[in-house]
Amino acid sequence: xxxxxxxxxxxxxxxxxxxxxxxxxxxxxxxxxxxxxxxxxxxxxxxxxxxxxxxxxxxxxxxxxxxxxxxxxxxxxxxxxxxxxxxxxxxxxxxxxxxxxxxxxxxxxxxxxxxxxxxxxxxxxxxxxxxxxxxxxxxxxxxxxxxxxxxxxxxxxxxxxxxxxxxxxxxxxxxxxxxxxxxxxxxxxxxxxxxxxxxxxxxxxxxxxxxxxxxxxxxxxxxxxxxxxxxxxxxxxxxxxxxxxxxxxxxxxxxxxxxxxxxxxxxxxxxxxxxxxxxxxxx
Length: 283
What we know:
With 283 residues, the chain is of the alpha/beta class. The protein has one domain: NAD(P)-binding Rossmann-like Domain (Rossmann fold, 3-Layer(aba) Sandwich), CATH 3.40.50.720. It is built from eleven helices and twelve strands. The strands form four sheets. It has a six-stranded parallel sheet with strand order 2-1-3-4-5-10, sandwiched between helices. A two-stranded parallel ribbon has the order 6-9. Helix 5 links the parallel strand 4 (97-102) and strand 5 (143-147). Helix 1 (12-24) crosses helix 7 (188-200) and helix 4 runs parallel beside helix 5.
């Protein structure tokens, strides 16, 4: 590994990848790309920068990842999430491309989804990710990471699920959290380590990278309340049965057996990881 592009390098997972890549490849030149450095929708600029940098691999984290934003503007979501990925896949025809997808590609009817299960997206955001997956899968060099909720801290302080919950609690809001909506949460720190390990192992195809524990939104709120008593979080259990907004898949928990087999170790249970990592959990 000589030169590594990381798009979306100022985001939650991108920033952790940036911090950890030097430990995996000390002599590698890691090139962080965020919108101020390169507008990926400008295909000519992206191609010129690619030709100048000549990366040996690309990790593509950049996306419109907020579901309400994608629901409100599907065309823009398609440009950012699908067309940008299409162009990067073309540029990376001869080198590894790591593309970040989501557990929300599934309909949530049963949970514990494997890489072989058929996607059935219910949200515009997830639809764009499925479309992008199809593009990336066409090249056997490329790797698709399906991720779940990631815990961590960002420069803006409002990008991760834990930041959103804590900000709402500190503003005096009562958090109404579903007891019957399930994900497989993991720390962004652990996701970055796993993805760099998979890239190092030359993994290709689709790999699920998430926590090895199925937790509800309400359980996540309880874990955060215990970790941050100073936030005085007020939690109220709620049910999807009483919800009338945009679609919300009930259970998109993931099986990560393939990732664990490649990496040679289990991915962490979030409820065990969180209280055991005070320095990482607070930074």
